[in-house]
């Protein structure tokens, strides 16, 4: 069975890859869970267009990742959140919140999947968040969470 992966599947491929799998694995596991879609020529063309757009946005090489790292580490990122009088948040800060705050601070576009929050951020104050830009390059972003 020929399928196009919609999400990364360990040991099989990355999103947009065209893979050949056994019928049962595709029909009973990959397709029902939304991990893959059936292959057609039209779908293949659409996936190639999406891949080209993703590659244009993606960080190109270790040198480019180092430049982006320098930009991120020089940023002063502030995130306004709802918090109680004691400084405790209603919920916690998510990677999507951090990505939006980086963009709002004038930083480069960062995918939320590349942001790692070591311990859940549930209080106002200064925190550090790691951003994996390249397999060999990671940036540490200083994040100030303020009650808004």
Description:
The chain is of the alpha+beta class and 148 residues long. The protein folds into two domains: 2-62, Ribosomal Protein L9, domain 1 (3-Layer(aba) Sandwich); 65-147, Ribosomal Protein L9, domain 2. The protein contains four helices and seven strands. The chain has helices at residues 23-30, 41-57, 61-74, 95-104; strands spanning 2-5, 18-20, 36-38, 77-81, 115-116, 125-134, 137-147. The strands form two sheets. The protein has a four-stranded mixed β-sheet with strand order 4-7-6-5. Strands 2-1-3 form a three-stranded antiparallel β-sheet, covered by helices on one side. A hairpin with an 8-residue loop joins strand 5 (115-116) and strand 6 (125-134). The longest helix is centred in the first third of the chain and has 17 residues, at 41-57. The N and C termini lie far apart (52 Å).
- Roughly how much helix do the residues carry, as a percent range? 25-40%
CATH superfamily of the largest domain: Ribosomal protein L9, C-terminal domain
Give, in spatial order, the strands making up the sheet with the most strands: 4-7-6-5
Q: Could you say what the CATH architecture of the largest domain is?
A: Roll
Given helix and strand content, the structural type is alpha+beta
- The chain-level mean pLDDT equals 88
Number of spatially distinct domains: 2
Q: How is the main sheet built?
A: 4 strands, mixed
Beta strand count = 7
Radius of gyration: 19 Å
């Amino acid at each position: 069975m020929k399928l196009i992966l919609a999400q990364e599947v360990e040991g099989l491929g990355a999103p947009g890859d065209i893979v050949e799998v056994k019928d049962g694995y595709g029909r009973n596991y990959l397709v029902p869970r939304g991990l893959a879609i059936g292959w057609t020529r039209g779908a293949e063309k659409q996936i190639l267009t999406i891949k080209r757009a993703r590659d244009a946005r993606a960080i190109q090489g270790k040198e480019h990742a180092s430049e982006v790292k320098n930009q991120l580490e020089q940023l002063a990122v502030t995130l306004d959140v709802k918090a109680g009088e004691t400084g405790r948040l209603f919920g916690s800060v998510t990677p999507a919140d951090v990505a939006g705050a980086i963009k709002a601070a004038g930083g480069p576009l960062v995918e939320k999947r590349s942001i790692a929050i070591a311990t859940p951020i549930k209080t106002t104050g200064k925190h550090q968040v790691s951003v994996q830009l390249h397999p060999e390059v990671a940036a540490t972003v200083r994040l100030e969470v303020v009650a808004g």
